[in-house]
Design goal:
The protein has eleven helices and two strands; from the N terminus they run H-H-H-H-H-H-H-H-E-E-H-H-H. It is an all-alpha fold. The chain folds into two domains: 90 residues; 120 residues, no CATH class. Helix 8 runs antiparallel to helix 9. It is globular and about 60 Å long.
Length: 221
């Protein structure tokens, strides 16, 4: 089935994206699991529809996202029995699936950072978890090399500078969340600022507003 025909099913995938964006806001594992289990039938229907449409890219994205959620869940959040046809088509489209995953996860990370910045999340620990999740979603899209180095390959989503600056901004926000009332030794704040500085430097060696903000925060402490 050609690409034009597969575009008949974008609404289902868009709804799945909305579900995942909502799940991302939930910091409690049991709450996340319950939310996804309540949508188990919809997710199964979406996978079936995408399979019939031969839309293996979106199929693979959903499968990877749900598989990742299941790793941290006390009970399965979806059911999937792979066939030879599944395996062959997923393997054939693996590069395109990885690109689509990178695009989705960067979008999720942006939403998480924005949500963590708002006053709607009242608990300090929840805001901290949201920032950590945003960092992880982008960091996992870097390719890790055997020599310990890593490289950003998804320039169709962000440049390497944008990806590094995003992580730096996350650490900068985490530094602002890292000093609870009554604490006199801000180790966590300084650690987060050090990480923000390193990521900002990796993004670009030139002085810019982000580096200046990090430097000013470091100077204060």
């Amino acid at each position: 089935m050609n690409e034009e025909q597969t575009n008949r099913w974008p609404d289902l995938f868009d709804k799945f994206e909305d579900i995942i964006m909502e799940v991302d806001k939930k910091c409690d594992i049991e709450e996340r699991t319950q939310f996804l289990r309540e949508r188990k039938e919809f997710n199964a229907e979406t996978l079936t529809s995408l399979e019939k449409a031969d839309d293996w890219i979106r199929f693979g994205v959903i499968l990877k996202v749900l598989s990742r959620e299941s790793e941290n869940s006390p009970v399965p959040v979806f059911t999937f029995r792979p066939s030879q046809n599944h395996c062959e088509n997923l393997k054939k489209n693996s590069d395109k699936i990885d690109k689509a995953i990178a695009e989705l996860n960067c979008k999720r990370a942006e939403k998480l950072l924005g949500h963590a910045r708002t006053g709607k999340v009242r608990k300090y620990t929840d805001r901290h978890r949201l920032v950590e999740s945003a960092i992880t979603l982008v960091w996992e899209q870097f390719e890790k090399r055997d020599n310990g180095q890593f490289k950003w390959l998804h320039i169709h989503v962000k440049t390497e500078k944008q990806a590094c600056n995003f992580i730096a901004k996350c650490y900068l926000l985490r530094s602002k969340l890292a000093l609870p009332k009554g604490s006199s030794i801000p180790e966590k704040k300084l650690e987060a600022l050090d990480n923000a500085w390193e990521w900002a430097k990796r993004g670009s060696p030139e002085t810019d507003d982000l580096k200046m903000e990090v430097a000013l925060q470091k100077h204060r402490w």
